[in-house]
Amino acid sequence: MIDALRFEWIRIRTIRSTYWLTALALVLSAAVAGLIAYFGRENPINDQMAGVILTGGSAFSPLPFTAVFMGIIGVFAFGHEYRHGTILPTLTAVPRRGSLVVAKAAVVIGWSLVVALVSVGLNWAVARVLSGQSLPLFDAPVGPALGGYLGFVVLWGLLGLGLGGLLRSLPAAMVLIFVVPLVVEPLLGALTMIPALESFRDYVNYLPFTAGNAMSQTMNPNEVGGGGGPQLGDQPTRLVSSLTFTAWVALVLGAATALFHKRDA
User: Fold this and answer.
1) How far apart are CA 17 and CA 32, in angstroms?
2) pLDDT tens profile 32-63
3) Rounded Cα distance, 105 and 161, in Å
């Protein structure tokens, strides 16, 4: 197991894409935080808006920057192995497939968690400079939202890992990770606005990426903009949303692990 962890740690540190994806995640999230803080500097920033700034607006974006780039790093953990044909020498070096999956998951979890923590700190610093206000980090609802945000980013990384192992194709995994939150789930939500499908409206909140986004929310999306937008039914609690997204990720990662043991390399 130690050898597998060492192997994965060397792999993720020696791939150039790891660093530019991490840099993009931090810079783009800080840019969103900075814009919100700068244009809101004339008024005191309340706790709800502080949560939005510190998470880089993740709760209101179908593709939150930090999370989606960690998802891509997760996809690369398996996707690069199959794309470049290195899975055979990898399994020669680490023949126990279960240990290899656990090592990949542990490294993706660790990297994603550190990037999420750095992102929160960077967003806080940028907001402090541009707004002249010190944002709370631990008071409710900011503290619980930040806890949900850290878990959300880590789960995106694991979801990418699962999709990369399940599909064994970089393009297919990448398309899926962008199309589902950007097109499929908003379309399903819009369809429930049709009176005949109104009874399905509450279930939209249990779709994977919709539930995941709710993990870091400090504002009810149904109340944003005066509540004039589409109403998606009662918002589940943060705990229920967290468990829902975790279950979806566990399903994908479990299927990928089971097939990894059965299929040829």
Assistant:
1) 22
2) 999 998 888 888 888 888 888 999 887 778 88
3) 7
